Amino acid sequence: MSSDYDIIVIGGGHAGAEAAWAAARLGARTALVSLSIDTVGQMSCNPAIGGVGKGQMVREIDALGGLMGLAADATGIQFRMLNASKGPAVHGPRCQSDRHAYARFIQQALQGCPNLTLIEGEATGLVIEAGHVKGVTISDVGPGSSESEIQNLKSEIVIITAGTFLNGLMHLGEETWAGGRIHEPAARTLSDSLREAGLTLDRLKTGTCPRVDAATINHDRCIRQDGDDPPQPFSFLNDRIDQEQIPCSLTATNEDIHDVVRENFHRAPLFSGQIQSVGPRYCPSFEAKIDRFPDKTSHQVFLEPEGRETHWVYCNGISTSLPRDVQKFMVNHIPGLEKAVILQYGYAIEYDFAQPTQVTATLETKTTRGLYLAGQMLGTTGYEEAGALGLVAAVNAIRSLRDDEPFILRRDQAYVGVMIDDLVTKGVTEPYRMFTSRAEHRLSLRADNADRRLTPLGREIGLVDDDRWAAFSAKAGAAEKARTLMHEVRLDGKSIWDLLRRPDVKLEQLISPQCGAPASLTGGDGAMVANLRRLADEHPRAIRSLAIDAAYAGYLEKQARQVSQLQDLDAKTIPHDLDYHAVTQLRHEAREKLGLIRPANFGQALRVSGITPADVTVLAIHLAAKQGQ
Q1: Gap between the Cα atoms of 69 and 376, Å rounded
Q2: Which of 90, 96, 204, 415 could cross-link to 78 by cystine, CB 3.0-4.6 Å?
Q3: 359 near 198, Cβ under 8 Å?
Q4: What is the DSSP string of 322-389?
């Protein structure tokens, strides 16, 4: 049996969902292959979307026409703006999600998407001819599979988003078993096919926390945590969140728990040698926290409901693979959880991934044409990182099919651009997680202005539909009118735009009738303030974002000059087939690293780990001499 598709996406996690959605909406005949259709879009770990750095990427996915922001808004049970007391560059929107409703939303969106076919099965291998992918083989999942149940799916493009399923090995105390997620099988043979395609695979580790029964929690011993009022949506298509918010609870571990964990280090897979690979440093297992911070007497534990219609509660902060008896002691000695019943123990999982230096900035592999990787396949961790990579991979795959220019976001354009540039130039030594500190242009890469930065690009590549474009255009028009008014209206001799640079001045103060100053205006200025107030009422998110631009105008202008200088380097391309070993003036380490990464331009070369400005200067002189021959 054979079928023909333009694009085949392997894996139904967050990267696969965004890739399939984008490819199908761009008109490609798309197949999404998953071990189980019922688990497409599932939240394997904590039931939450966003955070500091991550929330910015969700807004970027949404601004480009992706799914994640819409799903989060529709199924969120608590919304909070993290770092709200700090500057806007590090504000991080986050929502606690109903994990079952979130997966249903994604599945329904994909099932209703034209051009998209969902196929249940295991991708067992790639079909490659003359260095170009030609399709995949899949087999039925479950017992009793035979040769007759093998299918050949033909396609010139394959996007692999296998998550933790490639040779996944689960750990719970001394117990180990093959699996890609709890109660789900691992992908057994696809890794071999990837190696045959010339890719080098390594291993990484991640983990998850215990879940407990909500009915067995004593919330009187915990601190109640409510969300923001009003909650702020992720999607720029939504002006408000209407569904009722649900509180979470905060508690903490103690020294008794820490002592018992230390006494059982020898039984911890992380320390016993049972786990061989590296986990995420910034989201460590609980036993790693105890080992790394021996003087800390407690660690916070966030009790997060997994949904509106479930009694499962996620114990965020104690990710662990310790044995069951140790986990039970841990949980039942946390205030409020003394009688808590564990519904699912925490576990760790090791899995195969490909060093991201083996792909270009388009996420196409350097070894095989038409083969793209995204999500945890490239060493990332987190739903948000995965979703962004899936979307970019699909857009570039489509553009490759149509012989269009690749879609590459710069570091000054998006957190997504920062992430991809980091991955392809530096590789990973641990699961990659986005932080605002990774972005040198974070003041302009804010969560509030993602639509202004990226929706025009989304329209250009074809993902932003007419409804989203009309909504964006209305907000952009209102913001432009508001900008003009802010420059023209003067209070005490200064324009509103200039007054907003003062740290103690807010736009609401300047335009509110209750604040005095606007009330003293007459004639034209009074009418302009009234117009500005009307625009702020009709488009609050857009005008609030504009006011942030005014407040940081001096810094943004300085940053724009720095970006211009960097763009000059990015505009100077390097031939892909350059023989770096022939550049004898380069240091040996530089020849090795540049030959491995093969940067597309001088800016990317300078960002390769270990490459110095002197190396780039030598390279520039060499290329200039070659061009002058």
Answers
A1: 20
A2: 96
A3: no
A4: --HHHHHHHHHTSTT-TTPPEEE---EEEEEEE-GGGB-TTSBBSSSBTEEE-GGGGTB-SHHHHHHH
Q: What is the pLDDT of residue 288?
A: 94
Residues counted in the chain: 629
Mean pLDDT of the chain: 93
Q: Which CATH superfamily is domain 2-164+178-199+357-460 in?
A: FAD/NAD(P)-binding domain (3.50.50.60)
Q: Which residue reads 């520039």 in tokens? A: 620
User: What is the spatial distance between Cα 315 and Cα 342, in angstroms, rounded to a whole number?
Assistant: 10
Q: What confidence score (pLDDT) does residue 279 get?
A: 76
- Cα separation of 486 and 508, whole Å? 12
| Residue 603 confidence (pLDDT) above 80 | yes
Q: What percent of the chain has pLDDT over 90?
A: 80
Q: What is the mean pLDDT of residues 234-245?
A: 95
pLDDT band with cut points at 50, 70 and 90 for residue 519: very low
Q: Where are the domains of the chain?
A: 2-164+178-199+357-460, 211-350, 465-557, 572-628
Instruction: Show Cβ contacts of residue 459 under 8 Å, excluding neighbours closer than 6 positions.
Output: 469
d(CA 322, CA 269) in angstroms, rounded, equals 7
End-to-end Cα separation, the chain, in angstroms: 56
CATH of the domain spanning 211-350, picked from 3.80.10.10, 4.10.520.10, 2.40.30.260, 3.30.360.10: 2.40.30.260
Residue 335 in this model has a pLDDT that exceeds 50? yes
Q: Tokens 């960097």 appear where? A: 566
- Residues 209 and 334: their CA atoms lie apart, in Å, by 14
Give me the pLDDT at residue 584, please.
87
pLDDT number for residue 559: 87
pLDDT in tens, 168-188: 999 999 999 999 999 999 998
- Beta carbons of 82 and 51 less than 8 angstroms apart: yes
pTM (two decimals):
0.93
Q: What residue type is 233 in one-letter code?
A: P
Looking at residue 501, the DSSP 8-state letter turns out to be: T
Q: Which two tokens stand for residue 295?
A: 């003087």
Query: What's CA 409's distance to the chain center, in Å?
Result: 14
603, 608, 609, 613: CA torsion to nearest 10: -40
Place of tokens 């807010």: 506
Q: Are the C-beta atoms of 458 and 409 separated by less than 8 Å? A: no
CATH of 572-628, one of 3.40.50.300, 1.10.155.10, 3.40.109.10, 1.10.150.570: 1.10.150.570
HSE-CB of 385 using CA atoms within 13 angstroms: 23
Contact 270, 321 (CB under 8 A): yes
d(CA 190, CA 20): 20
| Other CB atoms within 10 A of residue 442 CB | 20
pLDDT at 3: 62
CATH topology of domain 465-557: Arc Repressor Mutant, subunit A (1.10.10)
Q: How many CB atoms lie within 10 A of CB 493?
A: 7
Q: In whole angstroms, give the CA distance from residue 33 to residue 328.
A: 37
At 101-129, the pLDDT tens digits run 999 999 999 999 999 999 999 999 999 99
